[in-house]
Amino acid sequence: MPDLEIRQVVVALYQEKGSRYRFRGERHAGLWEIFCLDRGKAFVRVGTRRFRARPGDCFLYAPGAFHQHQATQGHAPHYYTIAFTARGAGCLKELCGRAWSLPGPARALLPRIVAEAGQDPGAATLRRALLAQFLVEWLRAARGNEASKPAPPRETYHENTARRAVARALEYLSENLKGRLSLEAAARAAGVSPPYLRELARAQLGHSLREELKRRRVALARHLLSHGTGNVKEIAAAVGYENVSAFTRAFRAVEGLSPRAYARTVAARGPTPLPEWYGRPQREKAGNSES
């Protein structure tokens, strides 16, 4: 590791924020910045990555990196912020873009760095030395056996809410395969507005809910075809299509061949299991119909 020299500690603060705290974000040209959560919880964004920080989590922002943070779930975050310039800081890049849970002795240096803020003789020199020690211990912990593994990105409250909303909408689809898709009804089941559900579905699934309904109907049809459960007309009705033509168009769009052609393939003689998303009551009903 090349020599690391702290040239200047520009900011060294311990900040106590309220439960509604929200920092819109910024980036610093030429400055490195440490964010270490001491108490409470916080959402942290580093570039395009988002984390749910817990006490003890430390982040290092490289010069020019966008970063923001805010309180979460009514928890007031208390944290250390240290901004600095350094020579030979290329080695620090391996610490960026992650959440690190550092050993207690390393974190204990942070309050000492903040405390050396006065005009006492040698305060600036000691502050630079303490910061250099903290960073070196962080690097060694990251590379050695005593290192805490980098914490993976933690789902934010918004991401968790969005994922749950789409999951509820998909559950609604699975329970209403035979009916017409109503975006409004799916949105009510998901607990969000129809436009927002449309946006969430495309972001998480890569396609619309209507397309997902078609794929789920075809997946169930594959299962029924592979078990010889009725003819094509009966299977079309069983998965929610009013006529064979509409069913065939949908099946061909997903599988690339007609239902009758699929029934003659090796895959259809598998037999194809029920889709994982198919609910227990539906499984039991389907099982009874096959017996």
Shape: elongated
Number of strands: 9
How does the helix and strand content classify structurally?
alpha+beta
Number of helices: 11
Q: Give the SSE string.
A: EEEEEEEEEHHHHHHHHHHH
The termini sit apart by 69 Å
The third-level CATH topology of the largest domain is Jelly Rolls
User: In the CATH hierarchy, what is the architecture of the largest domain at level 2?
Assistant: Sandwich
Strand order of the largest sheet: 1-8-3-6-9
Low-confidence stretches: 283-291
Radius of gyration equals 28 Å
The CATH class name of the largest domain reads: Mainly Beta
Which homologous superfamily in CATH is the superfamily of the largest domain? Regulatory protein AraC
Average pLDDT over all residues? 84
Q: List the domain count as a whole number.
A: 2
What characterizes the major β-sheet? 5 strands, antiparallel
Helical content class: 40-55%
Lay out the secondary structure.
Blueprint: E1 5-16, E2 22-26, E3 32-39, E4 42-46, E5 49-53, E6 57-61, E7 67-71, E8 78-87, E9 100-101, H1 104-107, H2 109-115, H3 123-143, H4 157-175, H5 183-190, H6 194-205, H7 209-226, H8 232-238, H9 244-255, H10 259-263, H11 280-290
How would you describe the overall organization of this protein?
- The structure is a single chain.
- The chain is an alpha+beta fold and 291 residues long.
- It is 43% helix and 20% strand.
- It has eleven helices and nine strands.
- Strands 1-8-3-6-9 form a five-stranded antiparallel sheet, with helices on one face. Strands 2-7-4-5 form a four-stranded antiparallel sheet, with no helix packed on it.
- A hairpin with a 2-residue loop joins strand 4 and strand 5 (49-53).
- Helix 2 runs antiparallel to helix 3 (123-143), helix 4 packs across helix 5 and helix 4 crosses helix 6 (194-205).
- The longest helix is centred in the middle third of the chain and has 21 residues, at 123-143.
- The radius of gyration is 28 Å and the shape is elongated.
- It starts with a strand and ends with a helix.
